[in-house]
Each structure stands twice: as structure tokens, then as C-alpha cells.
Design goal:
This protein has 279 residues and is mainly alpha-helical. 52% of the residues lie in helices and 11% in strands. The protein folds into two domains: 70 residues, no CATH class; 189 residues, Orthogonal Bundle (Isoleucyl-tRNA Synthetase, Domain 1), CATH 1.10.730. It contains ten helices and seven strands. A three-stranded mixed β-sheet has the order 6-5-7, with no helix packed on it.
């Protein structure tokens, strides 16, 4: 829409020292590569002005640009009794940075209780991955049309529908594979138990689930998929011994464990969540 390359200049400095940029013909060269679409993740209250902007572009003859200008609206996040302010970055005195800090602190308490013999720096590293992942996942697992009610009990639940639950499943897979050592062969035709088949079939759906989530811009579909995968892996692990199975069956089941580990890690990475190898 603009013949000259769009440039940027500093608009203001934020309290943390980072700069907010504004578009300008006289600014620095763009640090952003050309894109085929613009996706604005803005609150639902911006639906009308975003629609007006799209219609204006279309009326000016920029139909393709208007079609590729997407408003991905989200409902607001809040505590049970408070609303989160995106402009202020706070829940009435409870900033987004403080949410992350508290998430890390709460996760560290849980990690210390589980791994008393672990080095303190490793505990802190895992706690950061778990804490940040818990907050991010709890936001992404909710459909865009639904208001997000954030609670620590839900976000940091190591036993339920949360990032720590999925991260723990990944760590469990990793631990099993470490104990087994390298497995080069495995005849998956030996897998005939219902829990094995259910897990394998769910793993096979991962590519199509990711494609669906990307096309429809609905990351919560990946979150839901990973929660179900973790539950299916737990059922499989309880019903089908892996390391204590006879050699050929052990190798076949280890292939299933390896596939689960890979999909859990890739799925978490797509959501911007770390996949710790120990928890």
C-alpha cells in the first residue's frame, strides 16, 4: 500500500528499557521481512474498528490486502474477581511480570518437594520452564471466544489439565528411554492391546491437528490434543509394562514411547512451552 519501504522510529521507552516503535518514512530500515498476511491479536472490543479498517482497504482497491488483514480477537484474561488490563499490564497492582515471578516461585516450591537431591540451579531452571509454561499454556488452552479465568490451582496442577502435567509426561518418556538405552528396532505389529492402539492412533492425528490449528488460527486445539495425548500415555504406561516386558515387546513399546516423546516435545514447542527432560 506504500510504495516506499516502511521504516520505523522509536516512539517511547518502556519502564523496562525496551523501545516501542512507530511506522515512519524517516526512521530506520525495517527489521521485519515482508509478510503475506497481517494478524492482529487484539481484544474483542476492537472488532468494529478492525472491520472498518479492512473495509476501507477494500474500498481503496486493496482487496487482497484486506483479505489478508486478520483480526484475531481474544476475550480478556483475569483472576476470578479481577480483570487483566492489557494496556497497564496488570491485575490492579498485579503486573504480568509479577505473575511470571510468582509462577516460577510456586513451581520451585513443588520441584523442591519432589527432588530434594537435585542441584539448586537445576531446580531453578526447571521451575522457570514449568512456571512460564503453566501461565502461557493456561492462556492458550482456552478458545478465543471464552473469557480466561486464571487460577494458580488450575495452571500449576501437576496431576491435571495443565502444562506441568504434559511436561511431566514428556519427562517420564525421556526417563524410560534413558533407562532402556538406544533401541534401533521395534516391531510395532506386536502392539495389540487397546491402550497401545489408542495411543498410536492419537499420535497419527498430530499432523492434521496442527494443520487445522494453523489454518483456523486456534492454538487451543493443540493444547487439547496434548492433554489427551498425556492421558492416553498414562493409561498405556499403567496397563502395558515397558522395561519389564519380554525383549521384543519391550522394543516395540519403546518405539511408542519414543514417538510420544517426540510429539509431546514438538507440540509444546509450537505453543512456546519448554519440554523439560526431568521433573
Amino acid at each position: 500500500m506504500i510504495d516506499a519501504q516502511l521504516k520505523f522510529s522509536e516512539f517511547l521507552k518502556q519502564p523496562n528499557g525496551t523501545a516501542l516503535l512507530t511506522s515512519s518514512r524517516q526512521g530506520s530500515s525495517s527489521r521485519f521481512p515482508p509478510a503475506s498476511a497481517a494478524i492482529n491479536v487484539i481484544g474483542v472490543e476492537q472488532q468494529y474498528p478492525q472491520r472498518v479498517l479492512s473495509l476501507l482497504m477494500e474500498s481503496m482497491g486493496f482487496g487482497e490486502q484486506a483479505a489478508n488483514y486478520v483480526h484475531l480477537s481474544y476475550e480478556h484474561a483475569g483472576l476470578p474477581d479481577k480483570k487483566f488490563s492489557g494496556r497497564e499490564g496488570s491485575w490492579v497492582g498485579y503486573s504480568a511480570d509479577e505473575v511470571i515471578d510468582e509462577a516460577e516461585a510456586r513451581a520451585l516450591t513443588e520441584i523442591r518437594a519432589r527432588f530434594a537431591d537435585m542441584a539448586e540451579d537445576e531446580k531453578a531452571k526447571i521451575a522457570r520452564s514449568v512456571g512460564i509454561g503453566a501461565v502461557r499454556f493456561d492462556m492458550l488452552r482456552t478458545t478465543p471466544e471464552k473469557k480466561i479465568t486464571f487460577t494458580w490451582e488450575k495452571a500449576l496442577n501437576f496431576e491435571g489439565d495443565s502444562a506441568p502435567y504434559i511436561q511431566y509426561s514428556h519427562a517420564r518418556c525421556t526417563r524410560i528411554l534413558e533407562k532402556a538405552g538406544e533401541v534401533l528396532f521395534g516391531d510395532i505389529s506386536l502392539l495389540s492391546e487397546a491402550e497401545e492402539r489408542d495411543l498410536a492412533m492419537h499420535l497419527a492425528r498430530f499432523p492434521s491437528k496442527v494443520s487445522h490449528a494453523a489454518i483456523d488460527m486456534r492454538p487451543h486445539l493443540i493444547a487439547e490434543y496434548l492433554l489427551e495425548l498425556s492421558a492416553l500415555f498414562s493409561k498405556f504406561y499403567s496397563a502395558c509394562p515397558v522395561l519389564k516386558a519380554e525383549p521384543r515387546m519391550m522394543e516395540a513399546r519403546l518405539k511408542l514411547v519414543k514417538a510420544t516423546q517426540i510429539v509431546l516435545r514438538n507440540g509444546l514447542n509450537l505453543l512456546g512451552v519448554d519440554a523439560p527432560e526431568r521433573m
